[in-house]
Amino acid sequence: MASFGRYATIALLMFAGSTSAFAAHLHVASALSPYATAGSIEARAARGNVVAEARLGWLYLNGRGVPQDFYLAAKWFYRAAVQGEGFAQYQLAMMYNKGEGVPRDYLLAYMWLNLSASQAVGEDGDFKTRMRDAIASKMTDAQIKTAQRMAVGWYRAR
Length: 158
Description:
Elements (H helix, E strand, L loop, with lengths): L1 H16 L2 H7 L7 H13 L3 H13 L7 H12 L4 H13 L7 H14 L2 H15 L4 H17 L1
């Protein structure tokens, strides 16, 4: 029964971390209509603005001002994540963990979470580290080592 409580806590943290706390971080709320806001964000994202790419991913993930579309959310998060944007790396990791818009892949989930956690500070860093460790609990030691090598390789290639 104790292990059920641990898994329930992890699930709640994953759910809570992927919505409201990060919406505030991205300043998605606007006085404009959500559709006008989405349109202006999409225009900036199309020009390669990394913050706009992450915001647009969040809009698609949550269906704010655009139809909810996990595939497009993953696409925009990926574009920002490969440029080193920590929020996008975290969100992309959660999508790989859940198999939303992308195939479920714990190696990639761990890798992106490891990269996101490495640049986070304070409580945000602690939270992302706990999420990474929760994903690691689903993996073998060999898979964890592979995911760690993937993260180091990605970082060095930048």
